[in-house]
Amino acid sequence: DAGVIQSPRHEVTEMGQEVTLRCKPISGHNSLFWYRQTMMRGLELLIYFNNNVPIDDSGMPEDRFSAKMPNASFSTLKIQPSEPRDSAVYFCASSLNGGQGRRETQYFGPGTRLLVL
Amino acid sequence: QKEVEQNSGPLSVPEGAIASLNCTYSDRGSQSFFWYRQYSGKSPELIMSIYSNGDKEDGRFTAQLNKASQYVSLLIRDSQPSDSATYLCAVTLGTYKYIFGTGTRLKVLA
Fold first, then answer.
1. Mutation site, B25, B87, B98, B100, interface A, largest A CB count within 10 A
2. CB of A25 within 8 Å of any CB in chain B?
């Protein structure tokens, strides 16, 4: 069974350019999370989707960041325009959310290493 | 106060010893607790999950949860050099949020 798939694995771009990161969650999972990881701040939740609907985007740092989930098997995170401080590893994770109470395990994709020059 | 706190380390233990990793959390309503291992340059992978007070064992790993003290720990017995990694504690907050600690770097010395 395939895990969470992310592309590209590495992205180097120049300041001001648009960056689009892609994620395919595990089939059957109804929750999708985008995280950003840096040495200074660790893993930060950017946005959470449940059943393709954005539930919490309070972690999105600025209007330059946007995310979509047009269907259950695909999500994008877009940065426009990109800035050097956006350089980080961006992870997508998915889980099966059964509702209230116990939370199920999140499974992480391999991440996209973004470097903005 | 951070929602999930871990000692950043590095925690160095000799091969074959027990490594003890600790995590405290601030939300008394948290119900689910996870330990992830992250090798350098890789993504986090689940080691253990624990939901009830007490101990949960899986091979060389034991997770311990004390909700009254808001404390969760991970013990690694017979530590191996391949266990050298960063260990992330994750705690659920509310209905969907997973809050991660910044991780403890473990070094197992051969």
1. B98
2. no
With a CB cutoff of 8 Å and minimum separation 6, the contacts of B63 are B33, B35, B48, B49, B50, B55, B56, B72, B73, B74, B75
A10 at interface of B, judged by CB pairs closer than 8 A: no
Which residues, other chains included, contact B78 with Cβ-Cβ below 8 Å and sequence gap of 6+?
B16, B18, B60
Q: Tens digits of per-residue pLDDT, A59-68?
A: 998 899 999 9
Give chain B positions within 8 Å (CB) of A109: 43
Query: Over 80: is that where the pLDDT of B1 sits?
Result: no
Which residues have a Cβ under 8 Å from the Cβ of B59 and sit 6 or more positions away? none
Q: Which residues of B15-40 are buried (b: 16+ CB within 10 A; e: fewer)?
A: eeeebebbbbbeeeebbbbbbbbbee
Closest-CA distance, B32 to chain A, in angstroms, reads 6
Q: Is A71 buried (19+), middle (13-18) or exposed (0-12) by CB count in 10 A?
A: exposed
Q: CA-to-CA distance for B4 and A10, rounded, in angstroms?
A: 29
If one counts every other C-beta atom within 10 angstroms of the C-beta of residue A102, the result is: 11
Q: Quick check: A103 pLDDT over 90? A: no
- Please determine, for residue A1, whether its predicted confidence score (pLDDT) is greater than 70: no
A81: preceding bond cis by omega (within 30 degrees): yes
Min Cα distance A80 → chain B (Å) is 25
The pLDDT of A35-63, averaged and rounded, is 91
